[in-house]
């Protein structure tokens, strides 16, 4: 069995069956509401994490908007320890990109090596995704951001 998010081959993730499509058809009526809830949660994270020097929040541009499927921060130090600390408090977090794509086994045939894409390599060692969904409450967001502040203080 391979490690999660490490890829030996290129493939697809396509699991939408008829039942899931029917549910999605109903949920699409609420898409704007869901996106707004995620944007509000992201704004809370932005505000509450702004003063932590080891944390960089996701960048935005004024001519676009973001739906925040994930809220991924960049931490300049101790990412693994932060993730363990959050876990000890019952707060999930995820490292979706533990290895830059050009270093994944599935893409070795392209001939890239370590050092060819230094920004991607650096980010793969620094990014951490925090809980993000449409039902996050202010209490939950406060608990998450307070734990991150506690860890870095």
How does this model look, in words?
The chain is globular, with a radius of gyration of 18 Å. The N and C termini lie far apart (38 Å). The protein is mainly alpha-helical. The protein has a three-stranded antiparallel sheet, with no helix packed on it. The protein is built from five helices and three strands. It has a single domain, classed as Aspartate Aminotransferase, domain 1. The longest helix has 19 residues, at 31-49.
Key features of this structure:
153 residues; mainly alpha; Aspartate Aminotransferase, domain 1; 3 strands; 40% helix; globular
- Secondary-structure element pattern, one letter each: HHEEHHEH
CATH homologous group name: Aspartate Aminotransferase, domain 1
> What is the CATH architecture assignment?
Alpha-Beta Complex
Summed up, the domain count is 1
Return the CATH class: Alpha Beta
Number of strands: 3
